[in-house]
Amino acid sequence: MMVLEKSAYYSLDEIGAEIWRLIEIPMTVRQVCDRLLETFEVAPEQCQTDVLKFLNEIHGQGLVQVISVSA
Fold first, then answer.
1. Closest C-alpha to 18, from 65, 66, 50, 56
2. Are 20 and 1 in contact (CB under 8 A)?
3. Dist. CA 23–CA 60, nearest whole Å
4. Whole-model pTM?
5. Distance of alpha carbon 19 from alpha carbon 58, whole angstroms
6. Contact, 51 vs 29, CB < 8 A?
7. CA angle 67, 60, 19 (to 5 degrees)
């Protein structure tokens, strides 16, 4: 993906691209994982770990905002 504001190009694998597509609409990490578990064969705990890692990386690059919601 190309980020014009940063003049940067980011390469995403299949799962990273799917996460990026899913978070176009704000959703919780749990919702992202639930959707990924419908498509990919992965343990729920591993999915959550990987999603959080990916989101932390792109958040660190300033590509997404994190919004805290109360349950």
1. 50
2. yes
3. 16
4. 0.80
5. 11
6. yes
7. 65
**19-55 confidence digits (pLDDT tens):** 999 999 999 999 999 999 999 999 999 999 999 999 9
- CA–CA dist 61, 32 (Å, integer): 20
Residue type, 17: A
Domain ranges of the chain: 2-60
Tokens of 43: 């343990």
Q: Is 57 left (phi over 0), alpha (psi -120 to 50) or beta?
A: alpha
Sequence-distant contacts of 1-4: CB under 8 A, at least 24 apart: 3/63
